[in-house]
């Protein structure tokens, strides 16, 4: 598997973050793209839902939470209905098992080639390397994933996987890998990829995809794309395999509308994704086209453990990517710094949790998830932007804090953190000294800092001592007004209301 | 029991235990009334549909209901002439017999035989009707029931015929009023031409599916 998203453990985030911060191109691409998407998301929800936006999120939150709280019932219903429509349902406890199921199916059909549409869970289980090792040539059909595939690169965003790459890199790999002529024009590059893939769709023996939702009532899978690559990869080959995490289940089509409306708006500021496709079993008698066999592979890979834990809420995630776009940390460090296919705020909590639930740590080690990813809970400013952006209201900051507490309890927090907190506490217990110290820091900062024209804003471009790390890639704002304590001491006492407490 | 069934049963058992391990926090699915916001007060669904479909990048040609088949014929002929050059073929995947006849007439000798799936890749234009349409998002709902699968995806141009009385106000209505539309081997809700913005966020249409979607809206 690609070590960018499946690194050696324990994973050290810092070198990757440092490298990303120094990469000016990456700073520009990821910074601009996320900022734009975040703004557009706000815009479309404002226009289309106005003050009802929050209610819509609450509805989605509760609808998905209901599904998780009743997942056993829904799963049973899904399996019965899917089999009724002629699909075959499989279950895999681990990623390896999921791959083996697919390899068995491929072998039964003597499959040599596969067309695959974008799916996070297949990244997670390492399907591509497994297929390649078995000699099944696999084509990523999502344009972004395709470019990453031919470059041996890995996705760095849930929705826009090649957010970290530019057109020049794409142009060069198309010349190198496809023998195309050199062009940097995105339209021409896209058309080169289109032509390359059309023949492969026609010839493929097997189609593979993920799913955005599973409908228990209907026994169907729902797949959202903008490119139409899913429909092409399911329409041609005689066999189609859908890999899907069990948390994708909802009651049925009757509960689907809020999610579809939220998913596309949150991810890419569209009212709906261009293609929302329903798969309900194999081709029926008298139909033209479509697979003769449809398989659903239900993937656990840690999800059952998360379901049983106090982090059940995390399984509500519909992978819209909004929290990544909103996150000030993701914007700086990019996706690869998280060492997982799930980057950004949701990745920071989900990756260690899935890891813990799968219990892949060396025996005798407690809470393997965090020991293997000790930096992830701290990869956040806890500003709450992810929670605000999340269409299913996952309280990510709460879970990050929870993990930080666990890190401390396990003695995995850095020593410096404990020292700073101890110093802070010591000072805070001595008001006079506290005052003096804060005053000194303020004075110092004002002497060193720069001001804008009217003196309203001031900042430090290079902070001294322990603050130096912070200002390496950003400025440190300096409070310019009076301090809270001064303001508090000098404020007019509030006039007492006549007639007592009313 | 096969190994497959055993594994499925084992997963179910583990999920059952996991569900019980935490308290149930949501006992009932909440009302989805708020979801309808965009389509809440719509007096003219055809107009709303045309506006929204245009907003997502599809083109709408309106045909007066009074003109009937002749109007549809003429609109289709114009669109085919616009998009099919040289010896380009047209595939017709229309379930409604009447409209299918119109489409076949308009396609004339460009008409591709409809009994060969592979043929889609050689067609320039795919003509379909729809199961229904959705005003709020400007979407087309097309199922494989009675239509050649992917005739609306594979050719570079898609022409869809929509009757005004097929337009539902909201996506919610698709699932509440037309469960038959998603009871096919496959159904696709289409909201615009095929799009990507993977390369530096630049929007490009026609990456895998059609670069242009033309809607003939009757009535
Ligand atoms: S956590 Fe919420 S905002 Fe982040 S990807 Fe999942 S659903 Fe979207």
List the SSEs and their pairings.
The complex is a heterodimer of chains A (502) and B (219).
Chain A: H1 13-22, H2 24-49, H3 53-69, H4 71-84, E1 88-92, H5 95-108, E2 113-116, H6 120-125, H7 127-133, E3 137-140, H8 143-151, H9 167-178, H10 186-203, E4 206-209, E5 213-215, E6 220-225, H11 229-235, E7 239-245, E8 249-250, H12 256-268, E9 275-279, E10 293-299, H13 303-308, H14 322-326, H15 328-333, H16 344-358, H17 368-372, H18 385-389, H19 396-409, H20 415-428, H21 431-448, E11 450-451, E12 458-460, E13 476-478, H22 484-490
Parallel strand pairs in A: 1-10, 2-3, 2-4, 4-7, 5-8, 7-10
Antiparallel strand pairs in A: 5-6, 6-9, 11-12, 12-13
Helix pairs in contact in A: 2-12, 9-10, 16-19
Chain B: H1 3-20, H2 45-55, E1 59-63, H3 68-83, E2 89-93, H4 97-107, E3 123-129, E4 132-134, E5 139-143, E6 157-163, E7 167-168, H5 171-177, E8 186-190, E9 195-196, E10 204-205, E11 212-218
Parallel strand pairs in B: 1-11, 2-3, 3-6, 4-7, 6-11
Antiparallel strand pairs in B: 4-5, 5-8, 9-10
Helix pairs in contact in B: 3-4
Bound molecules: iron/sulfur cluster.
């Amino acid at each position: 598997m690609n070590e960018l998203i499946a690194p050696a453990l324990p994973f050290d985030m810092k070198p990757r973050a440092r490298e990303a911060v120094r990469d000016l191109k990456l700073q520009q691409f990821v910074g601009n793209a996320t900022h734009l998407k975040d703004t557009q998301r706000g815009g479309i929800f404002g226009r289309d839902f106005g003050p009802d936006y929050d209610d819509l999120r609450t509805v989605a939150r509760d609808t998905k939470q209901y599904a998780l709280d009743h997942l056993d019932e829904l799963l049973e219903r899904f399996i019965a209905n899917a089999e009724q429509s002629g699909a075959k349902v499989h279950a895999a406890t681990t990623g390896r098992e999921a791959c083996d199921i697919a390899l068995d199916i491929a072998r039964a059909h003597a499959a040599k080639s596969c067309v695959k549409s974008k799916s996070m869970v297949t990244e997670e289980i390492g399907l591509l390397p497994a297929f390649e090792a078995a000699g099944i040539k696999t084509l990523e059909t999502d344009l972004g994933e395709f470019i990453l595939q031919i470059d041996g690169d890995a996705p760095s965003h849930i929705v826009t996987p090649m957010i970290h790459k530019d057109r020049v890199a794409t142009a060069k790999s198309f010349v190198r890998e496809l023998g195309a002529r050199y062009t940097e024009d995105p339209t021409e590059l896209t058309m080169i990829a289109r032509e390359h893939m059309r023949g492969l769709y026609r010839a493929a023996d097997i189609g593979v995809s993920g799913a955005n939702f599973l409908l228990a009532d209907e026994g169907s899978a729902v797949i959202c794309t903008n490119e139409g690559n899913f429909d092409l990869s399911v329409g041609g080959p005689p066999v189609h395999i859908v890999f899907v995490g069990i948390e994708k289940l909802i009651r049925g089509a009757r509960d689907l509308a809020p999610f579809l409306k939220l998913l596309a708006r949150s991810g890419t500021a569209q009212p709906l994704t261009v293609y929302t496709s329903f798969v309900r079993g194999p081709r029926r008698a008298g139909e033209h086209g479509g697979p003769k066999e449809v398989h659903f592979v239900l993937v656990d890979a840690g999800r059952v453990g998360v379901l049983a834990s106090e982090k059940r809420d995390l399984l509500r995630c519909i992978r819209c990517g909004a929290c990544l776009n909103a996150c000030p940390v993701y914007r700086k460090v990019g996706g690869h710094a998280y060492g997982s296919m799930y980057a950004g705020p949701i990745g920071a909590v989900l990756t260690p949790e899935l890891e813990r639930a799968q219990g892949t740590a060396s025996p005798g080690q407690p809470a393997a998830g965090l020991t293997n990813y000790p930096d992830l809970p701290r990869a956040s400013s806890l500003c709450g932007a992810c929670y605000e952006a999340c269409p299913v209201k996952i309280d990510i900051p709460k879970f990050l804090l929870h993990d930080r507490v666990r890190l401390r309890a396990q003695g995995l927090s850095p020593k410096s953190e404990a020292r700073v907190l101890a110093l802070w506490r010591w000072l805070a217990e001595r008001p006079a000294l506290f005052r003096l110290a804060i005053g000194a820091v303020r004075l110092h900062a004002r002497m060193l800092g720069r001001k804008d024209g009217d003196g309203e804003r001031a900042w430090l471009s290079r902070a001294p001592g322990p603050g130096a790390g912070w200002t390496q890639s950003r400025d440190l704002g300096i409070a310019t007004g009076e301090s809270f304590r001064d303001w508090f001491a000098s404020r007019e006492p509030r006039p007492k209301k006549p007639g007592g407490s009313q | 029991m096969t190994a497959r069934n055993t594994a499925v049963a084992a997963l179910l058992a583990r999920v059952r235990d996991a569900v019980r391990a935490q308290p149930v926090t949501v006992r009932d699915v909440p009302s989805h009334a708020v979801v309808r916001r965009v389509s809440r007060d719509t007096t003219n669904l055809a107009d709303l549909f045309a506006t929204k479909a245009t907003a997502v990048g599809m083109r709408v040609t309106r045909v007066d209901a009074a003109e009937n088949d002749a109007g549809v014929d003429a609109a289709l002929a114009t669109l085919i002439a616009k998009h099919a050059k040289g010896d380009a073929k047209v595939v017709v995947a229309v379930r409604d017999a009447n409209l299918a006849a119109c489409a076949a007439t308009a396609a004339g000798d460009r008409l591709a035989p409809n009994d060969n799936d592979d043929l889609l890749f050689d067609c320039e234009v795919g003509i379909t009707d729809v199961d229904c349409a959705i005003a709020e998002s400007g979407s087309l709902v097309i199922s494989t029931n009675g239509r050649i699968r992917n005739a609306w995806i594979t050719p570079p141009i898609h022409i869809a015929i929509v009757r005004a009385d097929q337009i539902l106000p909201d996506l919610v209505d698709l699932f509440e009023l037309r469960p038959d539309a998603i009871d096919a081997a496959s159904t696709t809700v289409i909201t615009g031409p095929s799009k990507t913005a993977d390369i530096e966020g630049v929007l490009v249409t026609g990456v895998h599916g059609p670069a242009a979607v033309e809607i003939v809206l009757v009535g």
